[in-house]
Task: structure prediction
Amino acid sequence: MVKMIVLVGLLALSFCVAMAADHSPLQDFCVAQSNSQVLLNGLACKNPSMVQASDFSFSGLHLSGNTSNAVGSRVTPVATTQIPGLNTLGISLVRIDYAPWGINPPHTHPRATEILTVIEGSLEVGFVTSNPDNRLISKILHKGDVFVFPIGLIHYQRNVGKGNAMAVAGLSSQNPGVITIANAVFGSEAAISSDILAKAFQVDRRVVSSIRSKF
Ligand SMILES: *[C@@H]1O[C@H](CO)[C@@H](O)[C@H](O)[C@H]1NC(C)=O
Result:
């Protein structure tokens, strides 16, 4: 029995470490104090007696994002920066707009699972499982369809409909984080050595330079 409890405890611990999801709150709320200099995991709390409805609210998600850019999509986040009351609550939201054939390029959220629903148009969506299989799990979604991108996995969306598309997604972190693969690898500041990228992607260094010049 004791062994069993220890085993379950260890399992729970390893699960926490591996998944890196947001911790549970220790109070009703902890509205982020915007000007706090305190550094901690999350954001410092405002005095609860000073908290107002506006701390839990955001307006403007009915407005479409500007998709005039190289990838043809725009993510409008509603996370702790937009709603200070989300601090410690382990959840956030985004609106994503797509021009025709626009993509939300391959990226991962290091701290969140994402659940996405198509509000307008049609999207091809997909994620790739971790090594060694790297299996692509993908689907065409239409208005009202829902899809899940598991925490940490590389995923993308592409507008495959005739007009603009729009989706809304919930994420299991107050601050999901985004690592866009192309930008992180080819656009890092400072640059990763061309030799490393040439070998990693099995291409000539000139190809690396050519891709790098775009980021
Ligand atoms: C959208 O973004 C483009 C490129 O940055 C800019 O030229 C254009 O004025 C923007 N459109 C609107 C409506 O803000």
Notes: Residues 2-19 form the longest helix (18 residues). The beta strands are 73-78, 92-98, 103-108, 114-120, 122-128, 136-142, 146-149, 154-159, 165-171, 179-180. The first strand starts at residue 73 and ends at 78. The chain has a mean pLDDT of 92.
